[in-house]
Each structure stands twice: as structure tokens, then as C-alpha cells.
Amino acid sequence: MPYANITDLYEKSKRKYTAMKRDYHMHPNILKVPGQAEKFAKRAADLGFEEICFTDHMPFSLTPDESDRIEPGMVSQYCEKVRETAQSFKNIITIKTGIEIDFHPDYTEEVKSVLADGSFDYVLGSSHLNIAGYGIDMEHTSKSSYAAMVIENYIKAAESGLFDTITHIDVYRWVFSAYPLSEDGFTFERIRNELERLFSVLERTGVQLEINAAPLYKRFDSLGPYPEYKILEMAKDYKINYIYGSDAHMAEHVGFGYDLLKKFL
Description:
7 strands; 10 helices
């Protein structure tokens, strides 16, 4: 929905220029890689960030790959370890306890169980439909169909009430580079209606939209961050709150591209 009046525009502009310097999406794999969380925090502090949030991936029964996920039964230990790290950096940088959760409408009870096992400041929702457990035949699915499914899943995630923010809404771009989806001349215009529905839901629910820097350092295309620049332009017609996330899995990517992307926050 477009801004109703000049007051709305002013308030949005004011938020843009008073935003705290935050990176609210990073994966130190804190229980499995000793010392990495401290490297992330130091890197963020050196870059002048005031606040960061660790968001390791939830344990999820839909995927057997636990290499970069919190292991089942270890959610409370994960939260405790994040709080310990936060305490050790309390005079340097604020560290929040977060988690990234893959959304599937049939697995909301599993998500609720994960959330009940921890104590979170921030819950980040994602839609990795390439996970085998989602049951999508990647070899016989067109790019347009896959992208539409991703956005539909994000709509359900935003409506679920489980998340503070949704992340990398056009993550299908990376999937296009990594999986044998069939070509059908896809551009985001093919899913414009789905994107507009998603933005309407974000506006209505207050769920934030993340501006994610990962494509800027992964370099699988030249369309910009998640969401790509053209989608960000489209989103300007809606009253949506934004937050930056580097999606870093190594310390050198913490805060990546923030100075380029802060104008959108």
C-alpha cells in the first residue's frame, strides 16, 4: 500500500537516518567452531557496529545435513553460549541471541518446539525449498514455478506469527545458479503479483524485511543484494521496516556491503 501522506514519508525518512548500525544475520556455528563467535564480534566492533545478532540455523528434521546447524537437543546450550559471548563483549558491542528458522507450513509445531527450547531476542525466517525434505523435483521444475513457490512460502511464514524478520526473499537466484531448474525466461516480473502480496502482508503484520548482503560477496549474479535492487524499488510503495544482515558464515563477511546498503534501511 502506498504511503498515505507526507507524515508517513517523513517518519520513514527519519528512521532511515537514525538507524543503529546493526548486523542481524550471521552464522558463527558457535557450538561447533571454537573461537569463531569471538572473531565475528571483534570484526563487527572493528567496523563500528553497535549491535549484532548471532543467527545459527535451527535443527530441522527435513534435512539430514547438520554440518552448519544447531544439533537436535542443543538449542538451550546454543542460547547459553551466545549469552556467554555477549557477556564477554558487553563493554565492546551488544550481541543478541537469534536463530534462523526454515519455514514449512506442515512443521510449525517443530518450529514452536525449537523456540520453546531457547530464549531468543530475534527470530529470522527463511525459505530454503531446495532442501530435499520439501519434496520439490528440482530437475523438472521451471525457474518461474520455483520462484513463485519460494515467495508463497514466505507469505505463509510472514503470516505465521513466528518471525520477527524474513530473510533473502529472492534466494531463488542462488538456487538458479546451483540446481538444474528448467529455463523459461524468468524475470522477477513473472512473480510480481506474489511479491506484492508478500509486501502487503509485511506491511500489515509488521514483520521486517531483511536486506541481505550475501550475493555481493558470493557473486553468483550481478543483481545486487537480496532482494535485488529492482525489487527494493518496488517495495518502496509499502510501509515496510528493514534490517541489514550480512549472512556471514566467516568473519571476513561480517558487515559486508553495509555502507552500500544502508541507504535502504
